[in-house]
Predict the 3D structure of the following.
Amino acid sequence: MNPTCYSFIHPLIGTQNTVAGYLVEHSTGAGEPPQLLIPPETEFTLRQPWFLPAAHLPVAAENFIPLWKAPAVVDSTSQPQALLTCPDTRLPATGDWAYLLVPMSHARTLPPFALTGLAVRSRVITTDTQNHKDREWAIANGCCMTSGEYLLTVNPSQRAPDTTRQKMLALLALLAQDASTQELNNILRQETKLSYSLLRLVNSAAIAPRTPITSFSQAIDLLGRRQLERWVQLLIFANPEHNGGTNPLLYTAALRGRLMELLVPQLKLPHAQEDMSDSAFMTGCFSLLSVLLHIPMQEIVQQLPLAGCIKDALSHHGGRAGQLLLALEAAAHRNLNESARLLSLLDISPDTFLAAQLDALHWAERIPTP
């Protein structure tokens, strides 16, 4: 028997490397998918379009776009409509649809300039964007968004990791060993970009100190070691050039870490430790380090004094936390039925998983840019 139907929310990445929309898909399990109820105070829903299967559109809302599969004909309506194309049918006439979602395998077979022509009157989005070359090609051909699978692969044009990230790993190792403030201070003094980012963070509106912070020791004390550790985990993924650009891999790592943190209490682990949520967040966040650093995961695990459960999960998806990570990785690759199967085995219900995704998306959107 198939697992119950699960809903999966995929962020879509715009031309500025930030989230510009969301694609909702369902596994082919038994029953109806859980109802998508987004809290009205959730800020990120007010800015981007959501593409949902037309048959399961929960309510008529300005930012909920019904997604139809080709071939489909929709009577004229004032509400924007989206079409998911397929190679077996002809592309619609220019302007027939407000949005066109084109799988990359289909897009690559089209005649030259076909996408750019469609993009004149429709917003074109590619799905199944599996690598960075596909992403670059899609943007060059007029697409306004792409799916984010390419973020899970190494970017061949990315330069080798710089010394800043090596210092961050050293700082994380010291935090894991509960090193003294002076030892942490010594690392920060060695790396200008890292220390600048720390002082910028604690002096920001997100922390809002009463008086400006002027020393690393003050910054560490104000932020607290738990938050400092989490911040450094995310900062590793930030744009190293500090040129105002955004690295969408930071968002992806934060999203996965938060999802792990929210879902790990559902695993009913024996002898659960108090810091299990922190371990889960680190596991999710660090699961993308091999993509960022161009280093096999086994080498990364050896460099850091990680807890055994984290090493086990990262190295070979061991333990129930490792199985949860495997489920999230399958979802990120849009292997929806495999992800649903694993979530069902872990006793995570479709409603719980959907609520965790909404929470994680909202949380990741509000992270201050390092």
In short: The mean pLDDT is 83. Strands lie at 7-14, 19-26, 50-53, 64-69, 82-84, 99-103, 123-127, 145-146.
